[in-house]
Amino acid sequence: MYAQEKVADEPLVLLAYNCKIVGESSQGEAVDEAMDSHALDMYKILMEADKLRLDILKCMIDILTPLQAVELLVALKKLPLCLHEWSKRRDIQMGITKLLNTQISSTSGPPEPEP
């Protein structure tokens, strides 16, 4: 278990274990304090991860030619958009959207007709 997980998880697990009824909390202040601590730890981890990603990107751009750097930035922007579109189409093909009872519009074309 990572130190970050241990710091946040132990108090939350103990508080959850002591609850007799789901949703009941006689220790509201302790829960709030544990959640605040957990949120702060998560924020710090995310900030460190973002800094690391930015540092790596800067190093990569320094190595590449200007044209290669532009192509990399375009590809980095395009990849999550393409994955999102692909996953929406896949969900529709597998019928998952019907299970979730959601209407997902796609920017890649009109929605598929219902059978």
From TrEMBL:
MF-aspect GO terms: sequence-specific DNA binding
Biological process (GO), any one: DNA-templated transcription
Annotated ranges, domain DOG1: 1-93
Coiled-coil segments: none
Protein name: Transcription factor TGA like domain-containing protein
Annotated organism of origin: Helianthus annuus (Common sunflower)
